[in-house]
Hints:
Elements: H1 2-11, H2 30-36, E1 46-56, H3 59-65, E2 77-87, E3 92-101, H4 104-117, E4 128-129, E5 138-145, E6 152-160, E7 163-171, H5 181-199
Antiparallel strand pairs: 1-2, 2-3, 3-7, 4-5, 5-6, 6-7
Amino acid sequence: MAIAAALLLAGCGGGAESDSWNGKAVALTKEQVRETLPDGEAMAGWKESFRPTTLEMDKLSRSEACPIKGNAGCENSRFFGVSTFQHTENAATVTFLIIAYDSEQAARKAYDVLWDGYYGKKAGQRAKSFSLGPIGDERDARFGSSGHFGEPGAVTQTRVGTTLLWTLAGSMDKHENGVNEDSVRDLATVLAKRARQAQNGNAPSATLEG
């Protein structure tokens, strides 16, 4: 239920390897997934509204993580993680999501299934694609209007090794100081860097400040 609440909050609102890594693609543990999710220390200027939480992939988790027919995209997944933040100076919110798979092949296979079948639609029907730059092993991003009154919203999806990552951002502020492509890119980059650090066997330490 907590996962569902975080997803409701967020609802209001492919390329070559590029970031630094050591060539490994390992299945992350439950604790590594939790540590990969940004926490309050990693998010300067943001207030933690749902602390980093990781669940084992059971029937309920699959229905939340892969809410399409047959929970497609969740095959060979192990854990589902989420953390949510509100910006302290504007009406922006961001939710970070992770699905950890048992292999890079499983994550790669699920990538298009979940982007085309669900997550790519989270920024609204008229959303436009934008570039995230050289992060992760695969990446996509869309910016549009995800609120009921035309509020800006964005979704990004990135694959880093054996993990799929999402950044769901939105704002009640329709102007640039709410949510924009640059701020969403920064948020997605933090999550991707932390996932890469975990893949490398290191403690995730990347922060929004760099």
